[in-house]
Each structure stands twice: as C-alpha cells, then as structure tokens.
C-alpha cells in the first residue's frame, strides 16, 4: 500500500470535509435530509395551513401548476414540486393554495428595488460605470444557512 505524508493526508481530509459540508448546505432537499429531519426542520417542506386569510391585492393565479383531486395543487416551477392542500403555503413561501387555486403572493409585490453601479453585479467588465436596476421579491426555495439575504429570502412577505 502506498504511504502518504501527514500533510497530504490532512489536505485530502480537509477537502473531503469541505465537500461534505457544501453538499449538505446546497442539497438540503435530499432524501436523507428529509428522513433525518425532526419536526422543527423545515427544509424542503411545505407550510401546512399557513396561507394568509386574504390575498395580497394584486395576487395573481400562478403559472405552471396542476390541479389535482380534493382541491390539491402541484406547482411545477422548481424541483420541489410542492403539493399543496387548500390553505397550505409552498416551500418558497410565495405561493399558496386558496380553495384549489394556486396563487402567487409576490406578483406586483417587490420587497426591494434599487439602482446600483454595474460593478456590484456578478458581471465581468460589462459596460463599466453604467447602472443596473435590481428588483426582488420575497421567498426562496433553498434554505442555505449562509444566506446573505435571509431577511428577504426567508420572509413571509408583506401582506
Ligand atoms: S418551492 Fe415554490 S417554485 Fe418551487 S415547486 Fe414549490 S411553490 Fe413552486
């Protein structure tokens, strides 16, 4: 068997550890994660009976969803494929089942708008010194523990 130096062993061990941590952070919806999840673990789960009583005034029927039996709906936008009973809120917190119809709560409801220097954006040498208009709504279908926008990504919204 080939011997490896202590330095090489530590180097490989650290690499493996980092890979495992990243996989856990970026793949929160894995089968293992759901199987091991306790009742307080919300990764990849819809929020049962968490829809608001009234819709936001510009709430809009969502696109890309399927109506199922018993007024359930299934969203088809992202791989979560949220299966929502009436009154449930999606994993991304921005879609709800209201009496058998899927509504988007973020339609016409931005939480952030700003004009930024283009240099703030993840672009390389694109129109230097120009401006970029940023617009965002609340919600996200991930639960990254290191999210820098957690106040809006994990917010319920402004209604
Ligand atoms: S997380 Fe949001 S976008 Fe993804 S399937 Fe669920 S409702 Fe649709």
What is the secondary structure topology, with strand pairs?
Elements: H1 6-26, H2 31-36, E1 60-61, E2 65-67, E3 73-75, E4 83-84, E5 95-98, E6 101-104, E7 112-117, E8 131-136, H3 150-153
Antiparallel strand pairs: 1-6, 2-3, 3-4, 5-6, 7-8
The chain binds iron/sulfur cluster (SF4).
What do you see in this structure?
It is flat, with a radius of gyration of 21 Å. Helices cover 19% and strands 19% of the residues. The longest helix has 21 residues, at 6-26. Residues 18-36 have low confidence and may be disordered. It has a 3-stranded antiparallel sheet with strand order 1-6-5, with no helix packed on it. A 3-stranded antiparallel sheet has the order 2-3-4, with no helix packed on it. Strands 7-8 form a two-stranded antiparallel sheet. The protein is of the alpha+beta class and 159 residues long. It has 2 domains: 6-31; 41-159, no CATH class. It contains 3 helices and 8 strands, in the order H-H-E-E-E-E-E-E-E-E-H. The protein starts with 5 loop residues before the first helix and ends in a 6-residue tail after the last helix. Iron/sulfur cluster binds at residues 75, 77-78, 80-82, 90-92, 95, 141.
Main traits of this protein?
3-stranded antiparallel β-sheet, 159 residues, 3 helices, 2 domains, alpha+beta, 8 strands
How much β-strand is present in the residues? 15-25%
Strand order of the largest sheet: 1-6-5
Distance between the termini: 64 Å
Instruction: Summarize the helix and strand pattern as letters.
Output: HHEEEEEEEEH
